[in-house]
Design a protein that fits this description.
The protein is of the alpha/beta class. It has a single domain (7-277), classed as Aldolase class I (TIM Barrel), CATH 3.20.20. It contains 10 helices and 12 strands. An 8-stranded parallel barrel has the order 1-2-3-4-7-8-9-10, surrounded by 8 helices. Strands 5-6 form a two-stranded antiparallel sheet. It has a two-stranded antiparallel ribbon with strand order 11-12. Helix 1 runs parallel beside helix 2 (61-74) and helix 1 (28-41) runs parallel beside helix 8. The longest helix has 14 residues, at 28-41. The structure holds (5S)-5-amino-3-OXO-hexanoic acid and zinc ion. (5S)-5-amino-3-OXO-hexanoic acid binds at residues 13-15, 82-84, 86-87, 106, 108, 114, 119, 143.
């Protein structure tokens, strides 16, 4: 059983505009460059949202496949595609990204207000993603935006069985306006709902990044960081790049005496096949 820290990089997201955040990686070259930099600093998984040639979020399969291939060609990172997309994406298109055959994909566990928008995740979509991922050997990272989403995860597993890889890993996405707050108290409230044998990570959106990271490390959790979630490094100081956020996460993990997992260790933890096994 590993005692290290899984660091997932979420470099881009679907919410920020390149015009507002010039450092946001949106081209294939920018995404590959930030993925390589962050792998060298301790990231083991990359959570990808894809942008089109106009820098807008897209689920276009050709473009998604291009980015997956480019990241695989230049890094050993576990490639985790977002099945959450943008709040405006049609649900069938979010399922269709699985055709790009990533190692892993996110799977959001419930509908949540998302600022002024609604991020829609009805039960039937959850079951569809869970089942399709298992049939295709794609390992889910379940995403909980609220405490009740963890109860949904237990119900999902009871009714539909374990995911591909046999291991359950859930990311607590905290601090979304409309979801659970990014506080130590909220993280502690989630812990009893995390079943024995599961692992969890936490992500603090915006200014909750640092407190959530510290709370997660103290509770034995893993970390997700990146410009999808955080654009300000400190009050009044914009994030320079994703590497700055991964370096901080890896440094805190070292201080916690749970250093960053390698990509090989991450695959073992999550039940993800090596690239060689996957192509056999
Ligand atoms: N962009 C958010 C609406 C995911 O990637 O699975 C949803 C999201 C979750 O980012
Ligand atoms: Zn995402």
């Amino acid at each position: 059983m590993t005692t290290g820290t899984l660091i997932t990089l979420a470099p881009t997201g679907a919410e920020s505009a390149k015009a507002d955040v010039p450092a946001l990686p949106v081209t294939v070259e920018e995404v590959v460059a930030t993925a390589r930099d962050c792998e060298a600093l301790g990231a083991a998984v990359v959570h990808l949202h894809v942008r089109d040639l106009d820098t807008r979020p897209t689920l276009d399969l050709g473009r998604v496949r291009e980015v997956v291939a480019a990241v695989r060609g230049s890094t050993d990172l576990v490639v985790q595609l977002s099945s959450g997309g943008a709040v405006t994406d049609p649900l069938p298109d979010r399922v269709a990204v699985l055709d790009a055959d990533p190692d892993a994909a996110s799977l959001s566990l419930g509908t949540v207000n998302f600022g002024r928008d609604v991020f829609s995740n009805p039960w039937d979509l959850i079951v569809e993603l869970h089942t399709q991922m298992r049939d295709r050997g794609i390992v889910p990272e379940y995403e909980a935006f609220d405490l009740g989403h963890l109860a949904t995860l237990s119900r999902l597993l009871d009714r539909h069985g374990l995911p591909a890889g046999g291991h359950v890993h859930v990311d607590l996405v905290m601090g979304v306006p409309g979801g659970m707050p990014g506080t130590t108290g909220a993280l502690a409230a989630c812990l009893p709902a995390i079943e024995p044998g599961w692992t969890f990570a936490a992500t603090g959106v915006g200014r909750t990044s640092l407190p959530v990271m510290l709370a997660a490390l103290s509770a034995g959790g893993h970390l997700r960081v990146g410009m999808e979630d955080t654009l300000t490094y400190a009050p009044g100081e914009p994030v320079r790049d994703n590497a700055q956020l991964v370096a901080r996460a890896a440094g805190l993990a070292r201080i916690a005496q749970r250093p960053a997992l390698t990509t090989t260790e991450a695959r073992e933890l999550l039940g993800i096949r090596t690239r060689q096994e996957a192509t056999r």
